[in-house]
Amino acid sequence: MTQRDVVFPPGRQALYERNRYSPAIKSNGFLFVSGQVGSKEDGSPEPDLEDQVRTAFNNLNAILNEAGCTFDDVIDVTVFIVNPEERFEKIWKVVPEFWGNAPHPTVTAVGVTWLYGFQFEIKVIAKLPEATAN
Length: 134
Fold this sequence. Notes:
The chain is α+β, with helices and mostly antiparallel strands. It has helices at 13-19, 49-66, 84-94, 96-99; strands at 5-7, 24-27, 30-37, 74-82, 106-112, 120-127. The protein has a 6-stranded mixed sheet, with helices on one face.
């Protein structure tokens, strides 16, 4: 079995161990980040949708930073939205606070019916900085 090079953000390792998954894995010059939701440190959701999106991005940024990346290193994004017809505009109003300048990463948006009590989730693939010369 291949050894996984796992990245844990500060203060959240217990949450990932309890739920039995890795927050991110480094592999072949890339960082594969598990879906991040707007959870507080105890795992509970932020009640306000915009705060939930901001917290999801902050949780994502903590993982990126721990791996030596920023959102500028992100090349592919997948977002999951519960009831996107109702929530997309409110969510996408928050995104520019974190997204950065063009060129933007690729994006796939998926409407879902359930996200474990959350309304928004974001997962990304980033190019690790030491691998950008490849």
